[in-house]
Each structure stands twice: as structure tokens, then as C-alpha cells.
Amino acid sequence: MEALDAKPGWTSDTFASFSTGAGQPTFAICTPFDDNPATVGNGTMIALLAGTKDKVDAMHAKALALGGTDEVAPGLRADVFYLAYFRDLDGNKIALYAPNS
């Protein structure tokens, strides 16, 4: 989250959230409320607006350095977005993007 300039928000023993500021989207991680094991969703993906190509590159590199796996290396997609995908240690697919401007 540091690569996106996101700061911690609400936190507890079972919950952590991050955001780039008031009125902006929040990314939250928590243990399942039903007390069942966490599992990877099939067909789900989290997309995070990184804002700039440099931030996409930095966060993708950090994810891989921390043990994530590359799904799609950073690059321009359809002349619309600069985009990268990785999977976290649990197998969740995460996209990072910046507008192509």
C-alpha cells in the first residue's frame, strides 16, 4: 500500500484498512466473519487505481519481491490503461492500473 501512497485507516486484531484520503476508496483485509477459513474467490479480482505508471511498476515489483506471482507484467493495454496483475500469497488476483494520459 505504501507504493500507492495509501495510509492505514481502521485497524483491529482482525481487520486492517488503507486509503489514499478522505472520500477515496478503501481497501480492507479482515478475517472471515463466519469464522470459516479464508479461501480464494474464483472469478474475483481486486483492482487498485495506482494513479501513475511508476506506482503500478513499484507496487507490482514489491508484490513479487514479497512472494506474489506475476499474472501480467506492467504495460499498456488497449491504449487505455497502464496495467499489471499479480497474485498474492493466498492466490487472490490483484490488478494495478493507471490511466494512459
UniProtKB/TrEMBL annotation:
Classification via InterPro entries: Glyas_Bleomycin-R_OHBP_Dase
Protein name: VOC family protein
Species this protein is from: Algimonas porphyrae
